[in-house]
Design the sequence.
């Protein structure tokens, strides 16, 4: 079964012209490492639990295959911090690949692989696939958050255990469903900003969401999630990284539970429909200086960056002559999506998800999910209509 799925993923990568950047395997991670770095040195990154459960025996197997592993056991919640990453991981010259066994360490792995111009081998043993093929990764320098563009080849080994990961299936489901708003956000950006559309990648993400909504079993959710990751790579992040969902996670923190993601989906779709229906902009103009200062405090960054971002977004609005038409064109779509929320919630709960008890701590992140520089999503339209000014 997994052989067929892996071939399907490799075919999709080829169809989207990213076959030189990502290749999928099934079965034993050792075979992938041996094909990428035969008789070479590799940097193997582990969380502590993974190393003691799996890493010791894998180290011996690598050695028997004449591969020289350099093991790095990282602390829990290791942040990608340019001030300390090389204190944690001293990678010498001559290392030919980074090997990663923990999804939480993908960002650090691809950062190192980009710096040293070597590939990453990632062993996926969970049904959760979000951000396994990042185009850029967040890092922190002197307390300020920013993004680092990555450029490395991904070799992803999918374990049979991924389909047995019952604990992650609810999170995977709501992760895929969250792309509903990403698709609308991207089309809103195209309509106002006139960017060149990434249609093949968009179509892949749309199909993946429809498939997961129709048949949310483990195999479909895994396949949909990986298809979305390949499409994100092919579009250079243009669709997903532009979304209000992703911007929300950047402001609020990336490790949010599915209950928060479901609550966010409900709130976004509710605001989107309200904005599409109410075209007279009944509220006051946004206070950009206040928003920039609030964002800077939330992200520990410079408010000047956000002010420049607002200037760029406002310029897009000035150039667009039919903003009300753009908003109104989404009304039917948002009405249907809001009607589907009950089905999504019921399925999420049946898969083991739990509802968010308190969304209030995340209201500021919701307010600013249309404000980030280099993004322009439907929440940007919501902001300009005044609907978030009192959050």
Sequence:
């Amino acid at each position: 079964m997994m052989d067929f799925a892996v071939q399907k993923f490799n075919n999709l990568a080829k169809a989207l012209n990213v076959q030189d950047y990502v290749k999928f395997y099934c079965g034993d991670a050792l075979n992938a490492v041996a094909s990428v770095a035969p008789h070479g040195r590799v940097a193997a990154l582990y969380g502590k639990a993974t190393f003691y459960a799996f890493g010791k025996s894998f180290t011996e197997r690598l050695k028997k295959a004449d591969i020289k592993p350099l093991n790095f056991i990282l602390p829990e919640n290791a942040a990608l911090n340019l001030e300390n990453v090389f204190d944690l991981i001293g990678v010498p010259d001559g290392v030919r690949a980074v090997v990663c066994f923990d999804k939480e360490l993908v960002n650090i792995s691809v950062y190192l692989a980009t710096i040293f111009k070597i590939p990453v081998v990632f062993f996926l043993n969970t049904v959760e696939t979000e951000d396994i093929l990042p185009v850029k990764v967040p890092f922190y320098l002197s307390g300020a958050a920013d993004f680092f563009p990555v450029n490395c080849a991904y070799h992803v080994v999918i374990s049979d255990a991924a389909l047995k990961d019952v604990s992650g299936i609810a999170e995977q489901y709501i992760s895929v469903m969250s792309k509903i708003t990403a698709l609308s956000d991207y089309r809103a950006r195209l309509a106002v900003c006139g960017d060149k559309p990434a249609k093949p990648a968009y179509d892949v993400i749309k199909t993946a969401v429809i498939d997961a909504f129709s048949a949310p079993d483990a195999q479909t959710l895994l396949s949909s999630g990986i298809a979305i990751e390949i499409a994100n790579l092919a579009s250079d992040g243009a669709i997903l990284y532009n979304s209000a969902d992703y911007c929300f996670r950047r402001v609020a923190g990336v490790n949010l539970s599915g209950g928060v993601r479901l609550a966010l989906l409900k709130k976004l779709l509710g605001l989107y429909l309200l904005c599409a229906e109410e075209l007279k902009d009944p509220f006051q103009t946004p206070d950009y200086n206040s928003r920039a200062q609030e964002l800077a405090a939330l992200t520990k960054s410079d408010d000047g960056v956000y002010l420049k971002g607002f200037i760029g977004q406002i310029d897009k609005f000035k150039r667009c002559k039919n903003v009300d038409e753009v908003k109104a064109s989404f009304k039917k779509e948002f009405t249907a999506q809001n009607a589907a929320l009950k089905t999504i919630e019921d399925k999420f709960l049946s898969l083991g998800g739990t509802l968010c008890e308190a969304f209030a701590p995340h209201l500021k992140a919701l307010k600013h999910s249309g404000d980030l520089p280099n993004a322009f999503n439907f929440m940007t339209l919501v902001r300009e209509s005044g609907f978030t000014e009192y959050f």
